[in-house]
């Protein structure tokens, strides 16, 4: 589909592609150039509306408190646009840039970029907002957008995405607007400088390590060549070619079938560590020297211990569906453990509100104050530090965290998610009930969490117990 002319409303069901914390759908039946153009326009209108009369960050830094010039036309707004390497991303990227320009804002085009690189660009250079063309870990037929305002603050359903949808679907007024301009910006080097400030001090310790990194033919592949220059480790790069069809395996590393090649490679080469990134590079998953996937909760524990050795009393945030081991480890290490909802926007809001320093998600997202966006390279470097300085293998480091038996995420197809949650609550009503994120019910020796997916007709179930036998029994009871 081509771009819709100005003033016309797209004939596609755009309301269905707006999710809880991003925009996502199948290309081109659900999301296409027409939608991208109007979303670009809607984003500028939203930012213009929210910033009207409010001094820009750049103005504060450079010229006192002067407000944006000509806010009504959108002039002065500078919006970052990045994209992953899906086959449809160049088309959607061009369309969203056209929408931004036609609404009078300037585009800072960072080109191919991981999502953390995109967040960094908005945050580092004090731009007014940004839009990343990506469908994250979804299969290749999907695409979408992640949107932020200034300081890389994520925009979700409750923090502006609903308003952007409304503005996107409105018929545009035929105002004469001076179009914005495009500036291309390469941020790879500055992003890596930001992510690895202490590596120079670790070179002797890191030199002996041998690691494999699987980027699954996805956009994170652009990072590895530069990482090889900066790290003294021996790095093997699996599936480095950028191919938006993802021909070797899908780009969700939380699914163990998608990291089978990485696991086998680590074992065959007798490496120290395996690393897998998802489709847009904001999730990182680790494989130990035996070729076994390390639960992300264990990585959260490992990083938390390291942080708390230097900053006792620090607050650590984790998902309510994560293992109880995080709470145990954080409190034993002198920190404050806090359970929260899944999702970038929810995590960012909670971290800011309650001054949380570090957050780890069950799915392999990790966040750090004061940036409040995903920091996968920070986590990678901290893991490498811990291995090199302790003299232990990664499996030895995480072994103390193997206290409980956690099912991992179980996806169950459900058409009426609310009804099924009510049935589960009634069936297991004898425990301690929480509705913080879906349904969690705790009993003495086990608990479960059932969370409705924001993007699919699924309930995401996790079960944890003190014994494997009990965990398996409860999994069967909950299954339907």
Q: What secondary-structure arrangement, pairings included, does this model have?
A:
Blueprint: E1 23-26, H1 33-51, H2 57-62, E2 78-83, H3 89-102, E3 106-112, H4 115-124, E4 129-133, E5 142-149, H5 161-169, E6 182-184, H6 188-195, H7 203-206, E7 210-214, H8 221-230, E8 234-238, H9 260-269, E9 273-277, E10 284-287, E11 293-294, H10 296-310, E12 315-319, H11 325-332, E13 336-340, H12 344-354, E14 358-360, E15 366-368, H13 376-390, H14 394-398, E16 405-406, E17 410-413, H15 417-427, E18 432-434, E19 439-442, E20 446-452, E21 458-465, H16 468-478
Parallel strand pairs: 2-3, 2-4, 3-6, 7-8, 7-9, 12-13, 12-14
Antiparallel strand pairs: 1-5, 4-5, 9-10, 10-11, 14-15, 16-21, 17-21, 18-19, 19-20, 20-21
Essential attributes:
six-stranded antiparallel β-sheet, 35% helix, 480 residues, Alpha-D-Glucose-1,6-Bisphosphate, Chain A, domain 3, 4 domains, 20% strand, alpha/beta, disordered N terminus, single chain, six-stranded mixed β-sheet
Q: How would you describe this protein?
A:
This protein has 480 residues and is α/β, with parallel strands linked by helices. The protein folds into four domains: 14-189, Alpha-D-Glucose-1,6-Bisphosphate, subunit A, domain 3 (Alpha-D-Glucose-1,6-Bisphosphate, Chain A, domain 3), CATH 3.40.120; 196-290, Alpha-D-Glucose-1,6-Bisphosphate, subunit A, domain 3 (Alpha-D-Glucose-1,6-Bisphosphate, Chain A, domain 3); 296-401, Alpha-D-Glucose-1,6-Bisphosphate, subunit A, domain 3 (Alpha-D-Glucose-1,6-Bisphosphate, Chain A, domain 3); 405-478, TATA-Binding Protein, CATH 3.30.310. Helices cover 35% and strands 20% of the residues. It has 16 helices and 21 strands. It has helices spanning 33-51, 57-62, 89-102, 115-124, 161-169, 188-195, 203-206, 221-230, 260-269, 296-310, 325-332, 344-354, 376-390, 394-398, 417-427, 468-478; strands spanning 23-26, 78-83, 106-112, 129-133, 142-149, 182-184, 210-214, 234-238, 273-277, 284-287, 293-294, 315-319, 336-340, 358-360, 366-368, 405-406, 410-413, 432-434, 439-442, 446-452, 458-465. The strands form four sheets. Strands 1-5-4-2-3-6 form a six-stranded mixed beta sheet, sandwiched between helices. The protein is globular, with a radius of gyration of 23 Å.
